[in-house]
Amino acid sequence: MSGSTRRERVERREEAIVQAAHAVFSELGFDGATIAGIASRAGVAEGTIYLYFKNKNALLEAVVGRFYRQLTDGAASGVESLRGTRRQLEFLARHHLVNCLAHWRILELMMLLYGRVPEYGQDGYYRFNKTYVAVFDGVVRAGIDRGELEPDLSLAIVRDLFYGGLEYSARTQLLRGPDIDGIDVDAIARRLVDMLWAGAQRRPVAAGDDDSTVVDRLEAVADRLERLKT
Amino acid sequence: MSGSTRRERVERREEAIVQAAHAVFSELGFDGATIAGIASRAGVAEGTIYLYFKNKNALLEAVVGRFYRQLTDGAASGVESLRGTRRQLEFLARHHLVNCLAHWRILELMMLLYGRVPEYGQDGYYRFNKTYVAVFDGVVRAGIDRGELEPDLSLAIVRDLFYGGLEYSARTQLLRGPDIDGIDVDAIARRLVDMLWAGAQRRPVAAGDDDSTVVDRLEAVADRLERLKT
Amino acid sequence: MSGSTRRERVERREEAIVQAAHAVFSELGFDGATIAGIASRAGVAEGTIYLYFKNKNALLEAVVGRFYRQLTDGAASGVESLRGTRRQLEFLARHHLVNCLAHWRILELMMLLYGRVPEYGQDGYYRFNKTYVAVFDGVVRAGIDRGELEPDLSLAIVRDLFYGGLEYSARTQLLRGPDIDGIDVDAIARRLVDMLWAGAQRRPVAAGDDDSTVVDRLEAVADRLERLKT
Amino acid sequence: MSGSTRRERVERREEAIVQAAHAVFSELGFDGATIAGIASRAGVAEGTIYLYFKNKNALLEAVVGRFYRQLTDGAASGVESLRGTRRQLEFLARHHLVNCLAHWRILELMMLLYGRVPEYGQDGYYRFNKTYVAVFDGVVRAGIDRGELEPDLSLAIVRDLFYGGLEYSARTQLLRGPDIDGIDVDAIARRLVDMLWAGAQRRPVAAGDDDSTVVDRLEAVADRLERLKT
DNA sequence: CATGAATGAGAGTTCATTCAT
DNA sequence: GATGAATGAACTCTCATTCAT
């Protein structure tokens, strides 16, 4: 039944190729990967790949695109199924961390795409990344609306800290060793969100809050005076 | 005079090669760079490079090592010249951000090293990164000691958020466009530290505690001012 | 009606393929042309071409054969409709020149055939070229018979000069630029025949001989005019 | 002694490569030739060829250029050593014919160059061909000056007939069979020049010369009348 | 009969590395 | 020490030809 029409066979083959490319790019990077390697992994001849993709760059584009789509879908559907800003953020953190650990090289390839496919660059990256990040943005905005988060929060900064923090953490783990399974993703995600939450949650406006600023200024004055002396 | 001994001539040549390699790797990436290109940029013959470095990978190792050393030196000396946890952190943020923007590709190469030089990996990365990050860790620990930061803060998490947030921000900027000069590094660094500070600072357990901290710090300033007089 | 029998449909398809091949070979040369390109131009699938022709070489053979047949037919029918050696030669010159300019690459392919299809070579070329050139030979022989041309003329040499001169002229024009339409084919053909005529015409052995030829020809014209009357 | 300096070794190697390329291009044509084949014939590695020539096209350019230079030199020095327009022309005819027979494919490649190397085309062909053909032009002009040849001769036409005739003759011979040695180059060259000479030599202006034109016109009238009838 | 997806050999080209000078 | 010419393995991509549908 399924898979017997020509159209379906073609689609399955294309998917097989992209999957193989994903795996090989992940292992060896873009330049390290070879079309021959991808082809043999996909179970097709070298030439066949060029029936589906114009060249190696186009294949990279397809791999990254597909990955981003899956990443975004996973994030969106997870968020939808959960209630509560905090729990949604923790899910997103886990989701991102898991994917970073499993597909680190693919995320790097996205950067490569920028320099390698001129007509890509801004457009391609932006399209994919914006839709992905929009899920996070939505959660944060909802948190602000519900009064859980500071209203004049800089979305850009929280986003940088959130995704950057997760990626840096993933990178450190990966560089430590290749046994991903031993990593306690849940704990990392929870603690990272904890700290971010502490910085981003709505603070009661108290009179004493401004003190630290005053002290900072005084310290700066002291610094300057010290330097004048020497 | 200077540079006339054989030893010095050799060292200058080696430095020229590493510098050239840094520049070319930065522009073209590791696989995009060619030994010929690096040699011509360094003003030496291709073969000469192999007198100083076993192969292309060793050259990469040297470039990354030198970069990390400079990065660490810059961070350490900057921190030393400043007082105040907050201001030290802001300096480190600026420093890291500036270097990310200027040498992004080199930071990527570090990851490459991991997969490309098997005997590198853990060892090399750890050695360099640990010393670099130690500067940050020192500042945070001092902050905790001074009671400015939450004592049971997870250093790993703050570090991930700090460096990860900066790098994610840098990446976004770089993907947006190649004109680095238009980026307001100061503002980004300050706001990022602001938010992190909010999440990491010592939280008032009781109303009175808050005041005592302020008083403590003010007294410290007074001390310093008094010392200036004498 | 026409074209509905199986036999006719097959023939039309074969003709379409050869026509497409002619066009593509003309534009891109033999090695530059692709079966895919020819197939799409002919409006058939790639595989279909192999139902009609054993391989690319056979297709080349067919194209050259068809071209030579058309060339020969055009020459023969043109000569038949004209009277007078000189005017026939001028027609042949124009005819050859026009076809050289329009189908230069195809003429080159004929040479290719020689090296590419071993069993072709002598046989194929000779068959086609002999029948084509036979038209010219006939005209020249008739001219000799009528006493207009030198009796012990070397047919081979005149032929070489005639066709060679035209082709060399065509090549020069083509190399000068691709705008064929601006070339004054008539003028070139006429002047080339003029010069050849000067070298090939019956040379007066004595003063009287010249006159008698003129008289002979005039009488022939008179005869024809008389016949028209009746 | 000779050949021991680096500079000389490089020059000998370049010459060896061009020679090998000439031979292989001659045998197999441009597309039929492979870099591997040329390299092995030249006794160098494939990569070495790319030290001397940017790519296959550049190699073709070098081969054609070198051939044309040799052709021109041979023509010029031969003409210089002979006296008498007729004998000079016969020499040029022999020279061209011999070279056509020995290097036919190379002459064809020149045409290829036109379509293949865009920045070549007119310029390259013209430069080479003009200098080559200038030798012939000089001989003819001298003949006119000496009163041996018709003063209002069209140089372009004589040239087309001369070179075209020789090339057509060569082509016919080559297509007949590959045993070049059996061809009586001298006889062909002499007879071809004979005929051209007859058409181009200065003719005594006689009253009867215009007769043939008159007859032509009468024949044309007869033609038209005949056609009206049918 | 017709299709067009699949094949895989083979091409041009690059470049890290070596080694005679 | 320094050079840079030489190497050749390896890569990407093309395309004539086949064959299951």
Describe this structure as you would to a colleague.
Chain A is built from 9 helices and no strands. The first copy, chain A, has 230 residues and is mostly helical. The N and C termini of chain A lie far apart (86 Å). At the A-B interface, helix 1, helix 5, helix 6, helix 7 and helix 8 of A face helix 1, helix 5, helix 6, helix 7 and helix 8 of B. Chain A binds a DNA duplex (21 and 21 nucleotides) through residues 6, 9-10, 13, 34-36, 44-48, 50-51, 55-56.
The residue fraction in helices of chain A comes out at: over 70%
Beta-strand content estimate of chain A: under 5%
Oligomerization category of the chains in this entry: homotetramer
Poorly predicted parts of chain A: 205-209
The helix tally of chain A amounts to 9
**Backbone structural class of chain A:** mainly alpha
Radius of gyration of chain A: 23 Å
Key terms:
homotetramer, 230 residues, mainly alpha, 9 helices, 78% helix, DNA-binding
Short overview:
4 copies of one chain form a homotetramer. The first copy, chain A, contains 9 helices and no strands.
Describe the secondary structure blueprint for this structure:
4 copies of one chain form a homotetramer.
Chain A: H1 6-32, H2 35-42, H3 46-52, H4 56-80, H5 85-116, H6 122-145, H7 155-176, H8 185-200, H9 211-229
Chain A binds a DNA duplex (21 and 21 nucleotides) through residues 6, 9-10, 13, 34-36, 44-48, 50-51, 55-56.
